[in-house]
Model the fold of this input.
Amino acid sequence: MSTARRGGRTRSPESHEAALAAAADLLEEQGYRAVTIEAIAARSGVAKSTLYRWWRSKPELVMEAYTRKVAERVAEPDTGGVEGDLAAFLAEVYRIAGYPDRVRALRGLMAEAQLDPEFLPAFREWVDGRRAIVVAMLERGIARGELRAEVDVEHAVDLVFGPFWYRLLVEHAPLDPADAPRHAAAILGGLRG
Amino acid sequence: MSTARRGGRTRSPESHEAALAAAADLLEEQGYRAVTIEAIAARSGVAKSTLYRWWRSKPELVMEAYTRKVAERVAEPDTGGVEGDLAAFLAEVYRIAGYPDRVRALRGLMAEAQLDPEFLPAFREWVDGRRAIVVAMLERGIARGELRAEVDVEHAVDLVFGPFWYRLLVEHAPLDPADAPRHAAAILGGLRG
Amino acid sequence: MSTARRGGRTRSPESHEAALAAAADLLEEQGYRAVTIEAIAARSGVAKSTLYRWWRSKPELVMEAYTRKVAERVAEPDTGGVEGDLAAFLAEVYRIAGYPDRVRALRGLMAEAQLDPEFLPAFREWVDGRRAIVVAMLERGIARGELRAEVDVEHAVDLVFGPFWYRLLVEHAPLDPADAPRHAAAILGGLRG
Amino acid sequence: MSTARRGGRTRSPESHEAALAAAADLLEEQGYRAVTIEAIAARSGVAKSTLYRWWRSKPELVMEAYTRKVAERVAEPDTGGVEGDLAAFLAEVYRIAGYPDRVRALRGLMAEAQLDPEFLPAFREWVDGRRAIVVAMLERGIARGELRAEVDVEHAVDLVFGPFWYRLLVEHAPLDPADAPRHAAAILGGLRG
DNA sequence: ACATAACCGAGACGGTACGTCAGGTCTTGAC
DNA sequence: GTCAAGACCTGACGTACCGTCTCGGTTATGT
Done:
């Protein structure tokens, strides 16, 4: 498609950044409930109409703010063995639970994804990016013969992320990076040849 | 403060039931977004002030409506072996995914639990009731020597419910009761002696 | 549930009055442009939603505020003769021009009546009430034989109010109560037997 | 509209005309409310910034559009006598009322003149041009001895235009060219020697 | 048996946030 | 050096629900 820009003032990077920063700050400082379009506009100095020009809805703005300002890249570990890799990955993921700000942010995004059907795809896209890391990890394990070839990779990935989200959302038990090796072992125990 | 009841009209069971029924209907028919106090009042004919007299907030009303009108008892299976029990339980749980109404309801409740800190306890209480079934199941397995005694039961339960919720919330893959035996095997594979 | 009933908290006279007072004040102090629903809400302490409950639109609120708080009753003069009556009436009407606040108010209302078709009827109703005074005056003159019976009363009334509004709106010339007798004479000159 | 032809871009009369035409069309077709700068820009293809370069505000643009595109020259009648002249003039003026488009336009301009103090002068200038016709007419009558020399010409002109505007704005009665002679007689009745 | 007080409906109230729209200013790039 | 395109802030609009608060009327006790 032609991106026929035939003139016009160019988009202000300052406004764009300020909006994302304000959204990210509100998300972390006060939780998702405090993230309103009006609050983002007030805090960033960007007009509401400008926000609506660039983001179709609040959750899309917040999702972008989260991925750009809050989420850190989770490195793809490579310890030589699948159990070590998984333990390292889980430990890194569990560490998030130590930062209440980020927990609030994640929970709010998950909630919004449930309440706003139009937001779910954007959220899922991000989730899928994270899943891909684990998929690659497990397939490496299969290739190395550490795991059975018939393993249900989708369910295996769910065994990695499912408990994480479940604890995050229900808060019935803490997430401790120290538990990562045991959890990794429990997950892989059923997947070996 | 004396709370001497010296007479007075008694609580109307009709209003109570009508409110719960309206909330449940709205929850299933149109999803959580459509469940507003005003809609419940309008549909049930129960006044807003009466709703607020008996429930402190919308989510508490809806949670009660869900457990009383929507959720069916999940029978505690007993097939003689832990893997059979777990497979039967998972199959029953996964069946929920075949009813979009109930899926919408569950997702909405989970979302509200994230956004409203005062609701989380009520939601968690319900969740804990469901967890207890699996806890009992696994402990029976340990007692019978099918599982190692040192098993991290909490994490094991998370391996059961985590993937369920994760798929429900993210919708990256369907939940099929036919997968239950394989999933049960994968979960228990790492917990055996 | 049961049949239709009529309960409910009664309308707050304080809010009602406060809204009208705020609207009238804004109208006089700063002119019609400053009269916004938001400003009325802010100044009166009455919620916007309450304003919209009681008045369908801003102009209707302002019209009510004007008639109740600003407009003074123009006494129906009775000097015994139609020319004296008319001169007295015109003098009183022209006096309005000496109060810039009220001029601003009148002009704003007239303008809004042009721009908002739904407001015109409310405005016209008020205008008609004022016309009736002059109609009665002229008919008394006809009854007394001071004016010809075939006089076009409608146009005669227009000769009274038309120049008033015209000067008010266009501001090409001042309105001076001292001119009233001469104007009365000019108007009646063409209406006599 | 088309753009520049030769090198070294010059000011575009096409844009100018297109803007006026769009404003006039909108004014007549949909009334003053529909005449927005955005609508004029969209319909004419002239950029908002270009509009603001040539006219300081919307009403000034619209006023120019009205006088150039909508208003027809009202011929200065000369029947030999002031009453005939006035009757002819009034008939022509009243005929405007038969064209709803032009009525809408006039009412909108009058309204805007009230709400926007910066526009009033431009509007008054146009009004004064029309007044001058009647002034000349009456002064001819005085010179011919048909009217008293002491006549208050300003008020006399108001007796001509006042009722016209008053009926246009309030719409309490129709304006019919057939009434022109009677109205002329009523107006002049009080001004004769 | 009847007074008392809690119950219930209706709905008005002060609020918060929504998403939209037009105004008027400013910036960029094409011609 | 004009002009289109259009980004930008401002400010008001009217709507939807929220949770609280009267009202007037109703009904089941406890004395």
Remarks:
- The two ends of chain D are 59 Å apart (CA to CA).
